[in-house]
Amino acid sequence: MSPCPICQKPVDPLRSRAARVRDGKVIAYCSQECASVSDTKPTQKVEMPAAAAKPADAKAAAKQTPAKGVPASKRTPATGIPTGTGSLESGPVIEIVHEPASGVVTSAADTRTGSTKASVRSGRAETDGAIQIAETGMTDDYIGFDDEPRRGRGLLIFLVLLLLVAGAGAAAYYMGFLDDMLGRKSKAVVVTPPPTPTIVEVAPPDAAVDSPSVTVDHAREALRTQLRSNAPRVQRVAAAALSRTGDPEAISVLAAALTKETSDVPRIELAYALARAGDKRGSDGLVGFLGAARRDVRAEAARRLALLGDPRAVPVLVEYLDVSQLRLGAAEQLAYLAEPRAIAELDKVLKDPKSSQDDQARAAIALGLAGRKDVAPALHKLLEDARFNAFAAGALAVLHDRSAHPLLVKQLEIPSLRVNAARSLRKLDADLDASALLRPLVAALATEKDTGQVQVAEAILLLAGPIAWSAHE
Predict the structure, then answer these.
(1) CB count in 10 Å sphere of residue 336
(2) 45 with 65, same domain?
């Protein structure tokens, strides 16, 4: 406690609501009135007489308070407070000293080793002659060493530094600097590329290409070489092409792939190739898929059986004739078997003026594949339509109509149409002299790669091999 510089009332410097900062010192007053008097007339700093220190005089001085309503300039200072010139002093003071290290304002007596402890929550302070205050000049703003604001700020700084160190360490690790610092050799990430398919260079046969048998042997050898490719896809297509000839090695490759494959549609393709080669495992596998839960799987298996001329496809495909969205597609597949109900549906589409031109074109092609020669005029017109001419030429080949011959020969130059064109040419003429057609194919066999080479070799087999090899797609 200290006396108010104006009225000498005892004042708690830490609780006073009327405090002023003068010349770097905090002065506490008992009330705002006393603080106002001090604002207008500071007191002198003199030694207080001994009589002023007596309790009786202190009580008397405490009663002398400024009258309310009297201007500050006319108020009389309290008894015991000398006036005059000289050094001005306002009473008990607290000196403010800045501490650069922490930014916390402390008293001059605070040396960081003292016993100063302050509690913001309790509003009390136990000091050894020093009181800490904030830079605002208000005694309510002091902060002690153990206060939460200071501890929270230190924790925040620590977390920020920790994040920066962690980020720098991660960057050094990923950039390889950390390995170098630890004496280890940096390891680059190596991405293993997929295996490169084996490219087989096939030279033209020594004998003249006018000998179809020599050319066929050359094509079969190229397919056997592709069976040993490190690309599974190339192995499969090579085995499927070579299996037309009944080659045991090709059939073994297909059978092994069938046991390893897990997807339904690829398994159907493998089973079809086996069945086309006369292997019972293939036909039995296709029949097994007719009972699959998925409709698309059942339809694909039935389509493959229809291509083979197997009547076991009929019950499944006939069901789709009652589904408007699937009717035409089912009738097209049943046309390979010349199924009567499907033929009637195709005739209906072809003759219905409400049918679209595309549907009529599909119906005409399917009827041609079923052996209906009356659709030949419609097929001739479709030879001029780039969307349907390949299919129309195949249907005309089944009808042995030579108007398709020029287009089929031209299609031998197109990789995606090459195999079907060769098969249709052989269908068109079972006794075809393929000598002139083999020359460009033999040249392509030496330049094409992997699957392209397989397509060329398969076309050679269909053109120059036994007619049975071209019986099915």
Answers:
(1) 21
(2) yes
Position 456 in a domain? yes
Give residue 94's pLDDT.
46
Of 37, 5, 33, the closest CA to residue 17 belongs to 33
Please name the amino acid found at residue 180: D
The predicted pLDDT at position 150 comes to 53
C-alpha separations of 181 from 165, 167, 172 in Å: 16, 17, 10
Q: What is the pLDDT of residue 7?
A: 82
Pair 72, 39: CB distance under 8 Å: yes
Tokens representing residue 411 in the block: 């299609």
- Residue 408 exposed, middle or buried by CB count within 10 Å (0-12, 13-18, 19+): buried
Q: How many residues comprise the chain?
A: 473
- 164-208: pLDDT as tens digits: 877 776 665 655 554 444 444 444 444 455 555 454 454 544 444
* pTM greater than 0.70 (yes/no): no
pLDDT of residue 210: 55
By residue range, what is the domain housing residue 82? 2-141
Could you tell me if 134 and 153 lie in one domain?
no
**Residue 117 included in any domain:** yes
Same domain, 153 and 133: no
CA-CA distance, 358 to 388, in Å (whole number)? 9
Dist. CA 458–CA 435, nearest whole Å:
16
277 in a domain, yes or no? no
> Does residue 127 share a domain with residue 17?
yes
Whether 144 and 119 have beta carbons less than 8 Å apart is answered as: yes
Average pLDDT in the chain:
77
Q: Virtual CA dihedral for 458, 459, 460, 463, nearest 10 degrees? A: 130
Q: In this structure, are 132 and 159 located in the same domain?
A: no
130 with 93, same domain? Answer: yes
Residue 123 counted as domain residue: yes
CA 418 from chain centre, in angstroms, equals 40
Instruction: Identify whether residues 176 and 215 lie together within a single domain.
Output: no
Q: Which residues of the chain have pLDDT under 50?
A: 43-70, 72-148, 178-191, 197, 199-200, 202, 204-208
For residues 43 and 86, membership in a common domain is answered with yes
Q: Pick the closest to residue 27 from 13, 39, 17 (CA basis).
A: 13
25's enclosing H/E stretch is: strand 25-29
Structure-block tokens of residue 383: 């030879």
* Nearest residue to 401 (alpha-carbon basis) of 354, 364, 451: 364
Total domains, the chain: 3
